[in-house]
Write a structure and sequence with these properties.
The complex is a heterodimer of chains A (309) and B (157). By secondary structure, chain A is an alpha/beta fold. Chain A is 39% helix and 14% strand. Chain B has a five-stranded antiparallel beta sheet, covered by helices on one side. Chain B has a four-stranded antiparallel beta sheet with strand order 6-7-8-9, with no helix packed on it. The chains are: A alpha/beta (309), B mainly beta (157). Chains A and B meet through α4 of A and loops of B. Bound molecules: zinc ion.
């Protein structure tokens, strides 16, 4: 699969060799992402950042990636300032922005907005999160972090904790981990279990999925613990939310029975799912994960845009 | 009022139009709605037979619509909602074409996406678009937001 000129709407758009290629390039770009070496792959290129909902973290990570490769950004960071407020359709706005730039990075509150952008734009579109639908660069970042921590992305035992029903970024991660043949142990409140439709989608892949009620049992011989947010709005009342969220909180005591090599990931920002006391332990990998978003996005932009530069 | 022997009203043959046979029992009125329902012209006689004995499927419904040849869009909708149906085009009392309904690989502009957050449910100048990902039973997936759809009736506009 050649990535040059392609869109990235969903992680499922990529095949395994394409994902491996991006992750390998990302590893090589870590020094450049840290500022230690200078790259000019995107010199003279203009990349539009169309952020129709606030997501400073993702936007900065993309901007850092573009600029570390010598490219420049055209940023819409405030939806209220755009003509959308005057009733212009997203379709019109996207056509305009796309004509000003060499690639379009889109963040939008509605599911499917990235597919719409890809259909409309003759420039490559990268989905930076469309509602609760897809966030493929987050998935690539998660994979890069697991690979760096475990040395390999194949045959790992990965515990995934939290909201597995509504969190579609987690569905993408499960798909990708299944593609690489990992064993996933799912731990979630009964009301937030993985939907059958997601199971169906990964059934033909090499990975295995099982559910486990007891977190300590699940953690006993795990390589990775991936923690997701449990959102207040998924629960009928505050009491129920607090009870469930409390019982899934990760602290030092939770990690006592785990292997010393266990690494904890979280897409951040966290809402109390992981106690700050975990931060100084060798288990905590979520800040490294946030950093790796930059070389991963550099690798992706380089593959999609760098070919002709 | 003229008195006379009681006449049994049967579904009469039509000169020109469409016969939809082998409709799953109880769905004829839905199929009629798809074909055009109240928007049909004044010269369209519509005959509906509900709960008819069928050798093939136990019970079935039949719908005959005069002077209407149904659109591809309507045929796709029938294929979704009433997949056992057959469609015959009648011209001058003769069956010109008869075929079982066929589900295409992609269904555009027919159903609303059940995901209210989907971009196709916002004020954008685009049609909904679904891929057929499974045929027996029929399962669709929104091409924009990936929402699965298995219950089609509520998604008709
Ligand atoms: Zn949709």
């Amino acid at each position: 699969m050649r990535l040059a000129g392609r869109d990235l709407v969903a992680i499922e758009d990529l095949d395994r060799p394409a994902i491996e290629e991006i992750l390998e390039a990302a590893r090589a770009l870590v020094p450049a992402a840290e500022g230690g070496s200078v790259r000019h792959t995107l010199e003279g290129r203009l990349v539009a950042m169309a952020f129709f909902e606030p997501s400073t973290r993702t936007r900065l990570s993309f901007e850092a990636a573009v600029q570390r490769l010598g490219g420049r950004c055209l940023t819409i960071a405030d939806p209220a300032a755009t003509s959308l407020r005057k009733g212009e359709t997203l379709s019109d706005t996207l056509r305009m922005i796309s004509s000003y730039s060499d690639a379009l990075i889109l963040r939008h509150p509605n599911s499917g907005a990235a597919r719409l952008a890809a259909d409309l734009s003759d420039r490559p579109v990268i989905n930076a999160g469309d509602g609760s639908h897809q966030h493929p660069t987050q998935t690539l970042t998660d994979l890069a972090t697991i690979q760096e921590a475990c040395g390999s992305l194949v045959g790992r035992r990965i515990v995934i904790l939290g909201d597995l029903k509504y969190g579609r970024a987690v569905h993408s991660l499960i798909w990708a981990l299944a593609l690489f043949g990992n064993e996933m142990v799912l731990v979630s409140p009964p009301s937030l279990r993985l939907p059958e439709s997601v199971r169906q989608r990964v059934r033909h892949l090499a990975g295995r999925i099982r559910e486990e009620d007891d977190l300590a049992t699940a953690l006993a011989d795990a390589d990775i613990l991936y923690v997701t947010r449990i959102q207040r709005e998924r629960f009928p009342d505050e009491t129920e939310y607090r009870r469930v969220a409390g019982s899934y909180r990760i602290d030092r005591a939770t990690l006592e029975g785990a292997r010393p090599e266990l690494r904890v990931l979280h897409p951040l920002p966290r809402l109390g799912e992981i106690a700050p006391e975990v931060d100084p332990t060798p288990h905590a990998l979520y800040f490294r994960q946030a950093f790796l978003g930059v070389p991963v996005r550099m690798a992706l932009m380089q593959s999609i845009l760098g070919g002709g530069a | 009022m003229e008195a006379g022997p009681a006449r049994e009203l049967k579904i009469t043959p039509i000169r020109n139009g469409t016969v939809i046979d082998h409709i799953p029992d109880g769905l004829a009125l839905e199929v009629l709605r798809i074909v055009g329902g109240s928007r049909l012209g004044r010269d369209s006689t519509v005959s509906i037979a509900l709960h008819v004995r069928s050798a093939k499927q136990g019970w079935k419904d039949i719908l005959k619509v005069e002077n209407v040849e149904i659109s591809d869009r309507a045929a796709n909708a029938i294929a979704l909602l009433a997949p056992t149906s057959t469609i015959s085009i009648i011209r001058d009392f003769a069956v010109r074409e008869k075929h079982p309904v066929a589900l295409p690989d992609r269904i555009d502009g027919l159903l609303r996406c059940p995901n209210l957050e989907c971009i196709t449910n916002q004020a954008e100048p685009i049609e909904s678009s679904f891929e057929v990902i499974h045929r027996r039973p029929i399962r669709l997936r929104c091409r924009y937001c990936d929402e699965p759809v298995t219950d089609f009736l509520p998604q008709l506009p």
